[in-house]
């Protein structure tokens, strides 16, 4: 019997590559109930699930490294979090961010700037927090505004750590102009691209890390292709590209499909939650699919971190693997969360995964810049 102080949630890394074995291993994880306890011994860990060397984990499994590992999660001391913001806390002891962090009280005094920007005749409401480093640009999930739980958590983390942050209400939602019945993936992606241009012009920001939740993960994939020079990394939280065409539409009854065609929208129940879906969203979604063109077909080469719950009730967990295969980037790491639901906002650890993913991308960017400067002729 394993001995320890308590159970922990499983964290599994899937690194891009590995062939057909990835899907088989994922199905084994989905079909098996694994209960782990804190233990210093690895004798009880199956060989296929043993973690890689410490240097591989700390560098977020660099490009070319294939494999899977299951890591334990221990709750960090809250006093450590508040008193030493730049220190490393979390599941795998990753090094802290390379950015200089201001004093906590000074950082929390920074005020965000609320405003509207005109994009193609519509006023888009945004919330911008000035700071250092790449801008953390959060894209909400479907039917959510800029005040969602994850948006507020990421904003608070950025404020405490002196980082820049941006979030906006989608066209047709919240306090932004437009009719929701006219909102599309194309419109939202173009608005996000315009906001990135605004950041560069008005605030002299030249680096952006996009964090997309749900449909926001679909939106960021298109925006990242249109603004390659500005995007330094992507974080997908239960990202669900192509969900309208491959998941929702096939599951709808004929009567609901007819209602959408005739009235332009309908309120459906998906995984026990009400969603307002529109004809425009479905029609545009067919044109904006990204997973139907084969491996390495999405021309995105920046670091990508995907966080996916194994207990997701809205999209299959395999969707993250499909997206990884379609991305051209070799620096793609998937984090699977045992029992994690679609929202991934039930526990503080769910938010911390986003923070660490952002810091991981920052370290990769610093490393790439250092290597680029080293190879530059004197």
Automatic annotation (TrEMBL):
SUPFAM superfamilies linked: alpha/beta-Hydrolases (SSF53474)
Pfam families with a match to the protein in the record: Hydrolase_4
Residue span, Serine aminopeptidase S33 domain: 153-239
A cellular-component GO term for this protein: mitochondrion
Key words, A-Z: Hydrolase
Gene3D superfamilies: alpha/beta hydrolase (3.40.50.1820)
GO terms assigned for molecular function: hydrolase activity, hydrolyzing O-glycosyl compounds; palmitoyl-(protein) hydrolase activity
Keyword Hydrolase among record annotations: yes
Ranges in coiled-coil conformation: none
Name used for this protein in its record: Serine aminopeptidase S33 domain-containing protein
Organism from which the protein derives: Guillardia theta
């Amino acid at each position: 019997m394993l001995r320890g102080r308590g159970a922990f949630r499983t964290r599994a890394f899937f690194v891009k590559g590995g062939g057909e074995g990835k899907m088989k291993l994922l199905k084994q994880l989905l079909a098996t109930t694994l209960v782990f306890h804190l233990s210093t011994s690895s004798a009880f860990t199956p060989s296929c699930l043993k973690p890689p060397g410490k240097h591989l984990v700390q560098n977020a499994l660099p490009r070319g490294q294939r494999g899977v590992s299951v890591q334990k999660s221990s709750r960090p001391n809250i006093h450590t979090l508040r008193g030493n913001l730049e220190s490393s806390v979390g599941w795998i002891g990753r090094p802290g961010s390379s950015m200089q962090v201001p004093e906590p009280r000074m950082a929390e005094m920074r005020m965000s700037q609320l405003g509207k920007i005109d994009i193609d005749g519509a006023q888009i409401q945004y919330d911008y927090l000035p700071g250092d480093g790449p801008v953390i640009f959060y894209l909400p999930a479907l039917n959510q505004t800029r005040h969602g739980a994850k948006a507020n958590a990421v904003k608070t983390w950025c404020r405490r750590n002196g980082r820049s942050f941006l979030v906006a209400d989608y066209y047709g939602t919240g306090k932004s102009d437009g009719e929701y019945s006219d909102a599309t993936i194309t419109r939202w992606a173009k608005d996000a691209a315009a906001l990135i241009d605004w950041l560069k012009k008005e605030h002299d920001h030249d680096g952006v890390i996009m964090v997309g939740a749900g449909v926001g993960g679909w939106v960021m994939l298109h925006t990242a292709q249109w603004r390659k020079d500005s995007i330094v990394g992507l974080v997908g939280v239960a990202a669900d590209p192509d969900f309208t065409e491959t998941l929702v539409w096939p599951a709808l009854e004929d009567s609901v499909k007819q209602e959408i065609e005739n009235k332009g929208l309908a309120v459906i129940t998906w995984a026990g939650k009400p969603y307002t879906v529109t004809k425009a969203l479905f029609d545009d979604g067919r044109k904006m699919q990204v997973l139907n063109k084969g491996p390495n077909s999405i021309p995105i080469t920046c670091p990508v971190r995907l966080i996916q719950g194994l207990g997701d009730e809205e999209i299959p967990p395999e969707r993250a693997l499909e997206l990884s295969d379609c991305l051209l980037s070799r620096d793609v790491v998937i984090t699977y969360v045992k029992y994690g639901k679609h929202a991934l906002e039930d526990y503080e650890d769910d938010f911390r995964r986003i923070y660490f993913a952002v810091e991981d991308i920052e370290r990769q960017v610093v490393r790439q810049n250092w290597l680029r400067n080293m190879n530059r002729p004197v």
